[in-house]
Design brief:
single chain; about 170 residues; alpha/beta; Rossmann fold; six-stranded mixed beta sheet; 6 helices; 6 strands; GTP-binding; Small_GTPase_Rab; prenylation
Length: about 170
């Protein structure tokens, strides 16, 4: 069973929930501007690590998604952050996401406070989400899009960005 990255993506892209795999390109409206998101749902398993390193350089934003009911998925986040630091651009935006927050507390293996502490350690934002109940799904995507938009505006203040092509990459 995965951490729910594909379900989170599907909930955001068309408002539905399923266990099927999906990758999408979509357009959102952000601050009266059209933003194009190309979203790569990449597998976090070790066997895909060499394939996915090719995507690091093109990524403008990375969502590091773990399953709150699976401590090993959370513990693997540090390895992925090291990989990101090694291969991605220095200014890539990152958000830590604990998914499946709708699960019963008795099934939770990673407390919210532990996720927040890890995000604080790396100086990145943290959300808990549920693709099943739609908890914080839009907030995560709009937050990373806003962060990337702001970073681009800060680096090129002479031109106003009216359309962006963003990679939001799942780990």
């Amino acid at each position: 069973v995965g951490v729910g990255k594909s379900c989170l993506l599907l909930r955001f892209s068309d408002g539905s929930f399923t266990t099927s795999f999906i990758t999408t390109i979509g357009t959102i409206e952000l601050d009266q501007k059209r933003i194009k998101l190309q979203i790569w749902d990449t597998a976090g398993q070790e066997r895909f690590r060499t394939i996915t390193t090719a995507y690091y350089r093109g990524a403008m934003g990375i969502l590091l998604v773990y399953d709150v009911t699976d401590e090993s998925s959370f513990n693997n986040i540090r390895n992925w952050i090291r990989n990101i630091e090694q291969h991605a651009s220095d200014n890539v935006n990152k958000i830590l996401v604990g998914n499946k927050a709708d699960m019963d507390e008795s099934k939770r293996a990673v407390p919210t406070s532990k996720g927040q502490a890890l995000a604080d350690e790396y100086g990145i934002k943290f959300f808990e989400t549920s693709a099943k109940t739609n908890l914080n799904v839009e907030e995560v995507f709009f937050s990373i899009a806003r962060d990337i938009k702001q970073r681009l505006a800060d680096t090129d203040s002479k031109s106003e960005v009216t359309f962006m092509f963003l990679y939001v990459w799942f780990i």
